[in-house]
Specification:
Distance between the termini: 30 Å
CATH class of the largest domain: Alpha Beta
CATH topology of the largest domain: Rossmann fold
Largest sheet: 7 strands, mixed
Helix content: 25-40%
Strand order of the largest sheet: 8-7-6-1-2-5-14
Number of domains: 2
CATH architecture of the largest domain: 3-Layer(aba) Sandwich
Shape: elongated
CATH superfamily of the largest domain: Crotonobetainyl-coa:carnitine coa-transferase, domain 1
Strand content: 5-15%
Structural class: alpha/beta
C-alpha cells in the first residue's frame, strides 16, 4: 500500500486528527495512537457503542496500535522521544503551547528526530489573537462567517449537519503532511505544519466570497445561488412531507425540466440572477413538487437529464445500492459496520484494519520495539506511567 513503511505517532483526540491518522492507516501506515493512561480519547465515550467501542471511536481509530503513556512524567516523555526517533510523522491537536510545556513540541522532537514531519491541528492556529481561544467546529464556523450562511426560515443560523472545519482541517493537514514527506525525500528533513481549522474552512469559501471581495458586503443567504436563492438549486417539499432537491442551475437542466412539465414560458426566469428575480419560478416549483410524493418524483425523473435527488435519511443512504457498490460501508468478521475508504487507487488499494485499539492495547509491544526490556516495561506499568493491556 502507498504508505507502507511510514510510522505515525497520533497524539490527537476527537475527530480531525484521528480521522486523518486513520486514513493513513487505511493505506498502510503504522499508526500508533498515544493516549493518557487514565482517560484516553474522549471519543471512546461519545455516542452508541457496540463490540467494546463506540461507533464514533471505531470509525476514527481503526487499524491503529495503542500506547497509553503519561506524557507529564519524565519517563513517559523519554519513551515518547525514543519512539519519535523511529517515526515519520507526529500529529497533535492540543491547544497551542501544550506540547511545548510537556517538552514534546516540534523543537524538542526535531532535535532528536530531524526526519519527523510534525503536524499541529488547532482551532485557530499557533499564532493570531484567537490562538488560545477554546473552540470546536461550531465556534470555528461562527467566527469564520460560515455559520451565518446556512439559515432557517426565520434567519436563524442552522446547525451544520457535518463539521466542515473539523473535516476541512483533517483533509488539509493530510495534504500538508504528504507534501512534507514528499519534500523530505530531497532534503532529508521533516517540517512543522501549523494547520488551523479556521484557515481550512475559510479557504473553502470561493463560491460565497464574491459579495465580500467585489462589493464589500456580506452575502444575503436567501438570495445567494448556493444558499437557496436559485430556484434550481434548493430542496422542495413533496406531497408526503418529504423532500427532493434540484441541484443544477445550468440552463440545459432548466430547459429540460420546464419543457417536460409543459412550462417553457418560464425558461427566461431561469436566466435571471439568483434571488428575488427568480421568485415566480421558485413559487411554481414549490407548487409543482407538492403535487406528488417523493417516490413519484423519483420515478418521474428516472432517465431525465436533470440534476435531481431525493433527500434520504442517513439510514436510507447507507442502505443505498450505489453506496454499497462503492464499498463505503464494510463489515468486519463480527458484523460491525465501518465507513469505507474514500481514496481509491487502482494499484495498491487501501484496506481496512477493522480493530480499534483498547486503551493501552499495544503498550508493551511498542515499548519493546524501541528497546525497553520486560523489567523496564513492568516498572513503567507499576509506576502508573504506562497502561498495558496486551500482556
Amino acid at each position: 500500500m502507498k504508505l507502507e513503511g511510514i510510522r505515525v505517532l497520533d497524539l490527537s483526540r476527537f475527530l480531525p486528527g484521528p480521522h486523518l491518522a486513520m486514513m493513513m492507516a487505511d493505506h498502510g501506515a503504522d499508526v500508533i495512537k498515544i493516549e493518557d493512561p487514565r482517560t484516553g480519547d474522549p471519543a471512546r465515550a461519545i455516542g452508541p457503542a457496540e463490540g467494546g467501542h463506540t461507533v464514533y471511536f471505531r470509525n476514527a481509530n481503526r487499524g491503529k496500535r495503542g500506547l497509553a503513556v503519561d506524557l507529564k512524567s519524565g519517563a513517559g516523555r523519554e519513551a515518547f522521544m525514543r519512539l519519535a526517533e523511529t517515526a515519520d510523522v507526529v500529529l497533535e491537536t492540543f491547544r497551542p503551547g501544550v506540547v511545548d510545556r510537556l517538552g514534546i513540541g516540534y523543537d524538542a522532537v526535531s532535535a532528536r528526530a530531524p526526519q519527523v514531519v510534525y503536524a499541529s491541528i488547532s482551532a485557530f492556529g499557533q499564532s493570531g489573537p484567537y490562538r488560545d481561544r477554546p473552540a470546536h467546529d461550531l465556534s470555528v464556523n461562527a467566527l469564520a462567517g460560515v455559520a451565518s450562511l446556512g439559515v432557517d426560515g426565520d434567519g436563524k443560523p442552522a446547525m451544520a449537519c457535518l463539521p466542515p472545519s473539523d473535516m476541512g482541517g483533517s483533509l488539509m493537514a493530510l495534504a500538508g503532511i504528504l507534501m512534507a514527506l514528499l519534500r523530505r525525500q530531497t532534503t532529508g528533513r521533516g517540517d512543522c505544519l501549523d494547520l488551523a481549522m479556521f484557515d481550512a474552512v475559510v479557504s473553502w469559501t470561493p463560491h460565497v466570497a464574491g459579495r465580500v471581495f467585489a462589493e464589500d458586503r456580506a452575502p444575503e443567504p436567501s438570495s445567494e445561488r448556493t444558499q437557496g436563492g436559485a430556484a434550481f438549486y434548493r430542496p422542495y417539499r413533496t406531497r408526503d412531507g418529504r423532500y427532493v432537491t434540484l441541484g443544477g442551475g445550468e440552463m440545459k437542466f432548466v430547459v429540460n425540466f420546464l419543457e417536460a412539465v409543459g412550462r417553457p414560458d418560464l425558461i427566461p426566469l431561469g436566466r435571471e440572477p439568483a434571488g428575488p428575480a427568480q421568485a415566480p419560478l421558485h413559487a411554481f416549483l414549490e407548487e409543482t413538487f407538492a403535487a406528488r410524493t417523493q417516490a413519484e418524483w423519483v420515478a418521474w425523473f428516472a432517465g431525465r437529464d436533470i440534476c435531481f435527488a431525493p433527500v434520504l435519511d442517513l439510514k436510507e443512504a447507507f442502505d443505498d445500492p450505489h453506496l454499497a457498490a462503492r464499498g463505503m460501508v464494510e463489515r468486519d468478521a463480527a458484523g460491525a459496520a465501518h465507513l469505507g475508504i474514500p481514496i481509491k487507487f487502482r494499484e495498491e488499494p487501501g484496506a481496512i484494519g477493522p480493530d480499534a485499539p483498547a486503551l493501552g492495547a499495544h503498550s508493551g509491544e511498542i515499548l519493546r520495539e524501541i528497546g525497553y526490556d520486560e523489567a523496564a516495561c513492568r516498572a513503567l506499568v507499576a509506576d502508573g506511567i504506562v497502561r498495558q493491556a496486551d500482556d
